[in-house]
Amino acid sequence: MSANYEVRGAIAVITLDNPPVNGLGFATRKAAAEGIERAEADPAVKAVVITGAGKAFSGGADIREFGSPKAMAEPNLLSLIAVVENCSKPVVAAVHTVCMGGGLELALGCHYRVAAPGAKIALPEVKLGLLPGAGGTQRLPRALGVEPALNMIVSGEPVNSEMLAQVPGQQLFQKIVEGDLLEGAIAYANEVADKRPLPKVRELKARHANPEAFFQFARNMVGGMSRNFPAPLRCLEAVAASVNMKFDEGMKAEREGFAALMMTPESKALRHAFFAERAASKIGDVPDSTPQREIRRVGVIGAGTMGGGISMNFLNAGIPVTILETKQEALDRGVATIKKNYEAQVKKGKLKEDKYQQRMALLSTTLDYAALGDADLIIEAVFEEIGVKEAVFKQLDAVAKPGAILASNTSTLDVDKIASFTKRPQDVVGMHFFSPANVMKLLEVVRGKATAKDVLATVMAIGKKIKKTAVVSGVCDGFIGNRMIEQYSRQAGFLLDEGCSPQQVDKAVEKFGFAMGPFRMGDLAGNDIGWAIRKRRYVEKPGMKYSASADRLCELGRYGQKTGAGWYDYVPGKRDAIPSPVVEEMLAKHRAAIGIQTRQISDEEIVQRLVFALVNEAAHLLEEGIAQRASDVDMVYLTGYGFPLWRGGPMCYADTVGLFNVVQAMKRFAKNPNDDGSFWQPAPLLARLVAEGKSFND
Ligand code: 3HC
Ligand code: NAI
């Protein structure tokens, strides 16, 4: 049973009960419809209240059922809503906490709706690449008004119940109930029990004074803002149908739009990302019930680029931070940068002055390790040198209280080695933030061999609290994201050797949807960083082949935007990347020196070589257990590396192309003159999946 039925006086109460959020899966729909039938059949019942158990009225259709026969099994959502709407006794929705998607559509099928204050009301289907498919686009404009309904449907953003109740002329909520919602709803149901006719939202009119001009304006706005995403415009057309068509015709138009969107790769990718984000928060051998350590105070070592951004995350979440540095000037510089960042937000109206002051009041600084004695979590973000890390962790070991979590933000060093500098390796973990750390969503949580389970559980939870997408990685050079990007960068270099220009590669990759191509990215981050890494690699891994073009570039002093020149030329004060004749000449000389016959390379080949390089390395990471699941890799790339969201991440993209086709392409690429025979060797996992006809998602 996933909806409960009880009778209180003359009122039947149907309580949706399908944890965690009362998704309207088959069993819940069936039980709810049966509840209405029972109420119809019971002469003692005069009205019905529908509500939800636990932490939601309903989060909507059960998205776990999408694509399965259960999703449409009768009673499907439309049939359930029809049963409710056609009930001969008044049905009152008692809405609380979360009322979204199909949940709101069900409520709109009821004759009356009462709500608790603060309930989050939304039609978020657009975020899954869909439109509300059970009458939401037809009923919400009728109940709330065309303009506010369009905003909600196209944005998918939740709005508080009491704000909606204040919209002039609205008929969405008849009452906001302060205090006990169920008692209030039952009282309301008793009040309206004998009223006839029963009001139905479908019988209202969706009106706008000047619909043609309004929808044309909205079309231009929405079209401009939602490139690559088909759903927002289809949402808009469905809402337009609520004004231009009769209710049943509008429902038909909505249905067609919903079915068409469900099949789009964009919706599949968005739904994949939704589940991938939730899956990433789970660790195979660390159950949800693992106790967590309490994090009340945070220490940050180093007030540089990363230390400042990391501190802001905790200040934003209301957690006090103490930053430690070796010199007062460094502290002053770090605090000034934090202030500058906040002040820019205040100026743009994104942060209120009093909030800014509250956050700054939570920040303290110190030159003395003793001040970190009461910190529950200490994150180190000092220079990337193992000797410096050793000194820091030895001092932390001496002062940190028992049970404090000691984290390193290292991007390349061995977290196990760092843990070994302490007598408490079980408390040491990697927290790899991405720059700018106060903005980027990704947090790689690096699990050392000794890291305790409660440390992992705590760090994953704190990651959510500071609004990051935390993904677990094992210890290896580069962790998940940077180890993969190295193969991508190597391919980008080989493409230059074979005849591409930096701008051709960047354009192809940006057309595919990456925020920035590899060469523009190199110029932004500084080409000298990659140069330093390659110099180390030449010693550590002499067999690994790289294009030397990037070394030639750095030898010219062209480090990127910071030196005014890199793969592109730059005009002082501007960031526009201008194709460079110097680079063209350098590349021509380089190609002549290595004796490669250049050729025309298609944009498709460029994209596939770069993306499949990521995919093959990720397959190695999965096999080695560094990444837990393919969808975790997708989250890393969606939230940390600008991979296009509508493609769902590299692994989802590879599944869409088909792994057989991926491996076929890799075999073709292996014939390139520049390949050393090893690069395109399919990872054993990839080869196995192809042999078994499976995908990463399997
Ligand atoms: N169906 C099934 N499971 C759902 C769900 C849904 N609609 N919404 C959330 N869940 C699950 C999550 O997968 C997660 O499960 P897990 O613990 O096993 O990983 C659990 O609920 C908790 O989710 P969150 O971690 O996101 O919890 P929060 O408390 O932060 O947020 C929420 C709750 C606001 C409901 C948020 O989960 C959310 O936005 N969900 C999506 C709602 C949505 O998109 N609804 C529309 C569905 S499509 C639809 O209704 C089609 C219709 O128009 C025909
Ligand atoms: P940075 O050079 O901007 O800042 C380092 C700060 O540490 C400086 O302010 C310095 O004074 C301070 N410091 C050095 N030794 C110290 C010590 N013994 N005690 C206290 N403070 C000390 O460096 P950045 O970029 O912030 O990097 C810090 C760490 O974060 C490194 O491990 C780096 O690999 C990692 N990282 C950097 C990223 C980036 O994009 N910059 C991204 C992800 C991780």
Notes on the protein architecture:
It is a single chain. Helix 21 packs across helix 22. With 698 residues, this protein is α/β, with parallel strands linked by helices. The chain folds into three domains: 260 residues, 2-enoyl-CoA Hydratase, Chain A, domain 1 (Alpha-Beta Complex), CATH 3.90.226; 176 residues, 3-Layer(aba) Sandwich (Rossmann fold), CATH 3.40.50.720; 212 residues, N-(1-d-carboxylethyl)-l-norvaline Dehydrogenase, domain 2 (Orthogonal Bundle). The protein has an eight-stranded mixed sheet, with helices on both faces. The chain is 48% helix and 11% strand. The model has no long low-confidence stretch (mean pLDDT 96). The two termini are 30 Å apart. It binds 3-hydroxybutanoyl-coenzyme A and 1,4-dihydronicotinamide adenine dinucleotide. 1,4-dihydronicotinamide adenine dinucleotide binds next to helix 12 and helix 15.
Mean pLDDT: 96
The secondary structure category is alpha/beta
What's the CATH class of the largest domain, please?
Alpha Beta
Q: Find the count of extended strands (DSSP E, 2+ residues).
A: 19
In oligomeric terms, what are we looking at? single chain
- Give the number of helices: 28
The amount of beta strand, in percent, is 5-15%
Bound ligands, each once: 3-hydroxybutanoyl-coenzyme A, 1,4-dihydronicotinamide adenine dinucleotide
Which radius of gyration do the C-alpha atoms yield? Answer: 29 Å
